[in-house]
Amino acid sequence: MSMEINRILVAKDLSRESSRVIRYALELGCKFDAQIHVLHVMPTIDSSVLGMLALTMGADNLAKINALNEVELAEKTREQLHGIIQEEAELMKEEAVHPPKVEVHHGEPVLMILDVADRLNVDMIVLGSHSKGKLHYAFLGSVAEKILNKTHRVVTIVPPQVGG
Known about the structure:
Layout: E1 7-11, H1 18-32, E2 35-42, H2 47-57, H3 59-91, E3 101-106, H4 109-120, E4 124-128, H5 134-140, H6 143-150, E5 154-158
Parallel strand pairs: 1-2, 1-4, 2-3, 4-5
Helix pairs in contact: 1-3, 2-3, 4-6
């Protein structure tokens, strides 16, 4: 059985570990001659908070401000991700054949990662894990675990210590 990997989705936040996870995905991309897609999902604001703000500011004003902020924040996030990709690519021995593509979306991270993976028909999803402790995990769960349980795709989890 041969494993063919042509498209890799790396879903990452902008934490300190992001660069290592992105470098790991870039190195996989070089080994498999695969296209890398870097995804960042910005969580949406809780509906109860939005409701309170809408009452205070007015729904139309809140919608305008929210739309402007989402666009501006998405653009700044794209710039940060391109910077991380550039820095990590410079540290690698090989040069990627396909320049990585970056996407930034708003939404629920698990659903958005799965949606983008399906839309791009990726062969592998690369995720970073956080060492937040058992208590945090017990109450909030894990994006990585939810992805593992809901996808049929190969998933690679990169622990924080890799590449350190």
